[in-house]
Structures are given as C-alpha cells and as structure tokens.
Design goal:
The protein contains 10 helices and 12 strands. The chain is of the alpha/beta class and 289 residues long.
Length: 289
C-alpha cells in the first residue's frame, strides 16, 4: 500500500521564512533554519524549501540550501530560480535530495526531459501554480502575477510525458486561506497523470488533510502556514489521521498521541484529572543484574 506523505513547505523571501497568503501577502516568521529544524524534529516526512525572491535574474541560493540541509534529516526538496542542469547539480551537491522547477518547465519543456535523463526522474519535481479563471484552472508564473494561458490539466499531461517524477500542485486561490484544499482541482488533476501529485494550498485543520486523502485519493499533502504556529503539529496531524483509520501514515518516532481526544481545532485535547494522575512520573529503582 502506498504510504501517505505529510510534507512541510518553507518559503524563504529575502533570507527569512515567511507565511504566504494568496501569493500576495507575506508575513515574516523567522529564521528558515529554525523552521526546517522544527519540521524535521517533529516527524515531518519531507521538506520543500522554495526561494520566492522576486528577482528572477539571480541564480538559486545554493548557500541557503547548504545551510538548511544541516538541519534536515528527512528528504529535502529545493526550488526557486532553477534554470539549468548546472543549477540542479549545484543544489543536489549542496544537500538537496530533489529539485523543483517551475517557470523553466514552461519556457522550455525539453528541460524536464533533459534534467530527468541526467539526474533521474525521482529527483525532478515540477511545481505548477494554478488559479481558477471562469471555471477553468489556469497556470500562472512569477508568484501568481503572470498568466501563461496554459490549461492546468494540459500542462500536467505535458510535464508527465516529459519525464517529471512528481508534481507540486499549488492552489493560488486557497493559499493561506485555511479554508481547505481545492477538492475539485486535485480530483481532476489526478485523472490526467500517473505520477504523484503533491497537494498544496489551503490547509487550516487536520480534517482538511483527511478529506483530501479520502475524497481525492491524494497520498502526498503539503502545507506551510498550518505547521508554523502549533507545537508538535506534524506529529499531532499524523496522530489525528491515524485516529481516523488512515493506515498509510509513517511514524518516525515512538512519540504518538494515541488514545487522545482531538478538539474542534484539531489540537490534542486536555487529559482528564484522572488520566493525568495515572500519567505521573513514578521513579523505578535501578535493576541490579
């Protein structure tokens, strides 16, 4: 059975981690190193780091990835301003396990095949930013500001045929909204490709992940803002999904919130006084053998 992947997105703008709302508003969070270390420590399955600086003429920030990779002990995907196989090679050498490409995959679709042939499709992720325009999903670039005129599902078929290993499908409309994943988008997208799709945009409650898994059959789900302000959030999310009988959840730690109730906001509920009394630390004499 295909395991579900819970993926954390770290957006970096002007050297710091930011929260994105609609691809337009960016709120500072803090050091990207802390964000990566937090996700890695609290049982995230993978991390995607995207450099979203507006100056597209500059090369990828190789030093940033080299620095952040020291804090990650899970697969790390790097993206932002990737224009050539030389860029991909440098990012992989800097510590990335996979590389995501976006605008370059639109400007030159042969670049996908070239990159996949050189490095293997398993480490080439094509990022697709999508907005719904008049009941049609359209592909946008430059942080959601420029319309390409491409139909999202046609583009998904093209990048699949060109050798992409995965697709990071971002909903611009839902980004930072906390209103849930765009179920229609991901249900339709899965019909146009046989490679993994990473759903991203809109998560605000553990139930949103549950819905996307059960109703859209998505096995890979990503979020950024959702993980920023809740203690142990990757681990509690996994525990919530496990409590809802989602079996394809991987735990990389012995810490699990099994047996706990989850509140309306999806957070771990407070134990009763009786349960707390049973959980008190009891010293045990050292065994002499």
């Amino acid at each position: 059975m295909l395991k579900n992947r819970i993926i954390g997105c770290v957006l970096v703008k002007n050297g710091i981690s930011v929260q994105s709302i609609g691809f337009k508003k960016f709120l500072p969070i803090g050091k990207a190193e802390i964000a990566v270390e937090f996700l890695s420590d609290w049982d995230i399955d993978e991390i995607i780091v995207l450099n979203i600086d507006s100056d597209l003429t500059t090369p990828p920030d190789f030093e940033l990835i080299e620095r952040l990779s020291r804090y990650s002990f899970v697969p790390l995907t790097a993206g932002g301003k990737v224009k050539s196989t030389a860029d991909i090679n440098k990012l992989l050498r800097a510590g990335a396990d996979k590389v995501t490409i976006n605008t370059s995959a639109i400007n030159n679709v042969k670049f996908i095949a070239e990159a996949s042939d050189m490095f293997g499709s398993q480490c080439i992720v094509v990022s697709v930013d999508v907005k719904k325009i008049n009941d049609s999903y359209q592909v946008f670039t430059q942080g959601g500001r420029k319309s390409t005129g491409l139909n999202a599902f046609d583009h998904i078929q093209t990048v699949t045929a060109s050798g992409a290993g995965e697709i990071l499908l971002n909903s611009i409309d839902r980004d930072g909204s906390k209103s849930g994943f765009d179920m229609e988008l991901y249900s339709q997208a899965s019909k146009h490709t046989d490679i993994p799709i990473i759903a991203c945009g809109g998560a605000g409650h553990p139930e949103h992940f549950l819905q996307c898994i059960t109703e859209c059959r998505m096995s890979s789900l990503a979020a950024g803002n959702f993980f920023n302000f809740t203690e142990h959030s990757p681990l509690t999310l996994k525990s919530y999904l496990k409590s809802k009988m989602i079996n394809g959840i991987r735990f990389g730690t012995k810490i699990k919130y099994s047996g706990f109730e989850f509140g309306e906001e999806g957070r771990v509920g407070k134990l009763s006084d009786r349960q707390l009394a049973k959980s008190k630390y009891i010293p045990v004499e050292k065994e002499i053998i």
